[in-house]
Write a structure and sequence with these properties.
The protein is an alpha+beta fold. It is 36% helix and 23% strand. It is elongated. Bound molecules: adenosine-5'-triphosphate and magnesium ion.
């Protein structure tokens, strides 16, 4: 046989149209090759990050082609390779067990009964327990194919009164018609090889695999011809193995070239994909720089964010961070991500006067008007007046205090009174903090939610403009607990605006929050969700599940998975690609970044 290496596809999370495309390619591969074996092999290797070793399972895919004159295969990016090496058979340890030259035991199961319908790519769910999956196939010459189908129909038709058999006969007739119309009839065998260091582990794995297969309606057995099966010597001559026939189109559900991979070159190691390969994420390689992390409380959002920041810093020393941290979670561990923690307290003068930010061009008139309206509950009909006043006086008054004092509308002046009294006035008074390098602002000691919102908004705008827009190279702006702003859509809009501007300046915008369902309700929040090239979806409750499903066009199964996702796991969507992920901290990182005190 001539061997080729095939490339897997992140199938589980493709859209229906994309899946059809992949399954057509699988069908075309089988039709074109005519006789051969498609092989998936699991390989467990160590993957080290820092001083910690993770055990990782990889899957390699091969195609063995019977026709030795075939030098190229235009499917699944096939490249010719040396025959894949396997341990030889040293002997038999019982009629159903092989003893291999690497000291391990192996057992080959062969599927002998299939249900009339199978879910696509069901074999992928066996990957955790098997060593190899092989589809051995051979297309039959037409005359032989036609007579085979005919005699099978005859044989089965003798049995009457059984609905099941009637269905089978019907299926055979249809198969016959397809063969008549030009489809190849294919004789195929599905083999599953289990391998373990000891007999007990082998038996247990066999049980698990059989149970899983049974769940799909597939029966499999390990017949006493293990050596032959192990060497794929079965097509056509083995009387003791029941043959199965199909045309290439009907073999689509047996598709197993599933590989969930995200290996951005130079990316940050974040965890492992569903098929066990390390996930390396480079946000700067995506169509835009927005990264949203969504999940219920305790699902592992902040852990993922902290790991990303810490590991990004390890790769890119000169990256600049600005973080808004309403719960002062990051300020506690800021040194691990290489940022200076700044705790903000009530009564502290911050020098964050929105009118001065307007004069610096960090905010525009409608943004200042939005912030003031939101925080001081200015009704819609007075917002026009406020904007007009800002337009007229924005560049002549010294700041909010003078602005409010000169307002002509008494109602508006009354509403904004809060701005010129403590605690708010302290936010505006004084000089803004001198910022350099990376900073995380902790807001935990601010008791009033209103003040938290006011300060977060102003400090984000200020820090964003002073640090990030000017910093050359890479930078990240992040907000955690962003649900805090959900009831104030214009503030969400302000963040959305930063996100949009970030692209131009190379600033990654990271938005971490629970309650996706609230976010979709405002157009500003929706825009953030829809326009993020990278999204990490972690565990969801039913409302969040539905919101995520709709926005990210998840399949029913994916959406359900989100409601069950264990801590630290979820779906990572980046650009057009989607994989399942388990975010993987090392024991040390887990220890420093855990929030169990909360
Ligand atoms: N990838 C992970 N692997 C193992 N444990 C994790 C992982 N992620 C989080 N945890 C554990 O779960 C706890 C909660 O995680 P985290 O603080 O990230 O949740 P969260 O989604 O940010 O919740 P909240 O919305 O309440 O802030 C952590 O303190 C940690 O102990
Ligand atoms: Mg958190």
């Amino acid at each position: 046989m001539r061997w080729f290496r095939l490339e897997g596809v992140s199938f589980a999370i493709l859209s229906d149209v994309e899946r059809d495309y992949v399954l057509k390619e699988w069908e075309a591969l089988i039709s074109a090759v005519k006789s051969g074996v498609i092989l998936a092999r699991r390989r467990v290797e160590g993957f080290s990050y820092g001083s910690h070793d993770f055990l990782v399972g990889f899957t390699d895919f091969y195609l063995g082609v019977g026709d030795r004159s075939r030098t190229s295969v235009p499917y699944f990016s096939a490249v010719e390779v040396e025959p894949p090496q396997r341990p030889g058979v040293r002997g038999l340890a019982g009629v159903r067990t092989l003893y291999l030259s690497d000291g391990s035991y192996a057992r080959v199961l062969i599927a002998y009964r299939y249900p009339s319908a199978l879910p696509e790519s069901f074999l992928y769910s066996l990957f955790g327990d098997v060593w190899e999956i092989a589809l051995v196939f051979k297309s039959l010459p037409r005359p032989r194919a036609l007579s085979l189908v005919e005699s099978a129909v005859k044989r089965k038709s003798v049995i009457t009164g059984s609905v099941e058999v009637a269905h089978e006969v019907e299926a055979l007739r249809e198969l016959g018609e397809r063969v008549l119309r030009g489809s190849d009839l294919i004789e195929f065998y599905l083999l599953v090889v289990i391998k373990a260091p000891g007999l007990r582990a082998l038996n247990e794995a066999e049980e698990r695999v059989k149970t899983m297969l049974k769940g799909f309606g597939v029966e499999a057995e390990a017949p006493p011809i293990q050596r032959e099966l192990y060497e794929f010597r079965l097509c056509g001559f083995l009387a003791c193995v029941e043959r199965a026939y199909a045309d290439a189109a009907s073999l689509k559900p047996l598709f197993f070239l599933v590989d969930e991979e995200m290996h951005d070159v130079g990316g940050v190691f974040l965890g492992f994909s569903g098929s066990g390969s390390p996930v390396m994420l480079d946000l700067w390689s995506k169509p835009n720089l927005n990264f949203v992390i969504l999940g219920v409380t305790g699902s592992g959002k902040s852990m993922s964010a902290k790991l990303y920041l810490k590991r990004l810093r390890e790769r890119v020393r000169e990256v600049t961070y600005v973080g808004v941290d309403p719960e002062s979670e990051y300020t506690k561990v800021a040194k691990h991500v290489g940022a200076a923690p700044v705790e903000i307290s009530e009564g502290q003068e911050l020098g964050l006067d929105p009118i001065r930010l307007l004069q610096l061009n960090y905010l525009d008139i409608s943004q200042v008007s939005d912030v003031l309206s939101e925080v001081y509950a200015v009704p819609r009909k007075l917002q026009g007046v406020l904007r007009k006043e800002l337009f007229v006086k924005g560049d002549v008054v010294s700041g909010v205090e003078e602005f409010v004092a000169t307002l002509r509308d008494p109602v508006l002046r009354k509403l904004l009174e809060g701005a010129v009294a403590p605690p708010d006035v302290n936010v505006f008074r004084g000089v803004p903090p001198k910022l350099s390098g990376s900073v995380v602002f902790g807001l935990r000691s601010l008791r009033s939610k209103r003040l938290k919102i006011l300060i977060s908004t102003l400090i984000s705008t200020y820090a964003y403009n002073t640090l990030l827009v000017k910093s050359r190279g890479r930078s990240v702006f992040f907000v955690d607990e962003a649900w805090l702003f959900m009831e104030t859509p214009s503030i969400v809009g302000l963040f959305e605006n930063l996100a949009r501007r970030g692209r131009k300046h190379g600033v990654v915008f990271m938005y971490v929050t629970q309650r996706a369902e609230d976010l979709v309700r405002s157009p500003q929040g929706r825009a953030i969700l829809e326009q993020s090239a990278t999204v990490l979806l972690m565990r969801q409750e039913p409302e969040g599940r539905d919101a995520c499903k709709k926005i990210y066009k998840l399949s029913e199964a994916e959406a359900d998975y989100l409601t069950r996702a264990p801590v630290g796991s979820g779906i990572l969507k980046a650009g057009r690609k989607r994989i399942t992920i388990q975010v993987a901290p090392t024991p040390e990182e887990l220890e420093v970044f855990s929030t169990s005190t909360r």
